[in-house]
Design a protein that fits this description.
Layout lengths: L9 H10 L1 E4 L5 H19 L6 E2 L4 E5 L8 H5 L2 H11 L4 E10 L16 H4 L6 E7 L10 E3 L22 H7 L1 E3 L6 E4 L5 E3 L10 E7 L11 E3 H4 L4 H6 L3 E3 L12 H4 L4
Parallel strand pairs: 11-12
Antiparallel strand pairs: 1-8, 2-3, 3-4, 4-10, 5-8, 5-10, 6-7, 6-9
Length: 273
């Protein structure tokens, strides 16, 4: 059956192709987001209590991948009509959800170096085809003091094969990204979708408040699932519908075990900009 959506995402597809990012304002009600925030903070406390439960992404900044069942709104997020429509339109009908996690800059987090999330594949830098997406959902209302996400629009098609790890451009190029960049100020309920190959960074959190952002990682044919270990219990698997099952790149087990983080980004672990 062909995929249909209650609205057009043509403008969103165009925005991703041209500017690397698009967003849907007010996609979820605030009370729903507040529940997500509580789940994230509980998962963060649990992850930091275990060896390799959380990965450093710079001073006072952490990344945690979680089991879908740890996030009460996972199914709502993964099946939101806007999310599924953008996935179908950009990645095709066989897209795979490979990651659910969150990034959390605490008070004292500093500017990250400009980076992309992984090396660009030939399909993107040569053929100009987008093969993966990252959906971001803030769990707080972002203010300038909280270290907003900064992105250099349109940089997802830059080859970058000679960059450090294919991900970190030399400092001599930072000024042109800075000049073209924009700070994102989402509020609770907003969703964004971006190419993970767009150059971006978290900025310094000068407030006393953490700024958690939930991340849903989706692949077309980028084959980044080896970086992740999405796992669900058989009991949870049986509660979700066939369409969502067809898009989850996951192992089904009888009992969950604590996750050891895989998606290390060495240039961010090592420190500040």
């Amino acid at each position: 059956m062909p995929h249909t959506a209650p609205f057009s995402v043509l403008d969103d597809v165009r925005a991703i192709e041209q500017s690397s990012i698009t967003s849907r304002r007010g996609a979820f009600p605030v009370p729903w987001v507040d529940r997500m925030h509580d789940d994230v903070m509980a998962a963060f406390a649990d992850a930091r209590s275990r060896d390799q439960g959380a990965i450093s992404r710079g001073p006072e900044r952490w990344y945690v991948e979680v089991h879908p069942e740890q996030i009460s709104g996972f199914v709502d997020l993964a099946t939101h009509p806007w999310v599924t429509a953008v996935c179908h339109a950009v990645l095709g009908p066989d897209y795979r959800i490979v990651e659910i996690g969150f990034d959390i800059p605490l008070e004292g987090a500093v500017d990250q170096p400009w980076h992309r999330d992984f090396r660009s594949p030939p399909a993107t830098y040569r053929d100009r085809r987008i093969t993966s997406l990252a959906f971001n959902l803030t769990t707080v209302d972002t203010t300038p003091e909280m270290g907003p996400f900064q992105i250099a629009p349109g940089t997802h098609f830059e080859p970058g094969q000679d960059w450090d790890h294919g991900m970190f451009p030399p400092r001599s190029e930072w000024s042109r990204f800075e000049q073209a960049s924009e700070l994102r100020m989402p509020r609770r309920g907003d969703i964004s979708a971006r190419s993970a190959l767009a150059l971006h960074r978290g900025t310094a959190n000068r407030s006393a408040q953490a700024r958690p952002v939930v991340i849903l990682g989706v692949d077309g044919d980028a084959e980044h699932d080896e970086r992740h270990d999405m796992t669900v219990t058989r009991a949870f698997w049986e509660t979700i519908d066939a369409d969502l099952r067809s898009h989850l790149h996951t192992r089904v087990v009888d009992e969950l075990t604590p996750l050891r983080q895989r998606h290390t980004i060495e240039g961010l672990v090592m420190g500040a900009a």
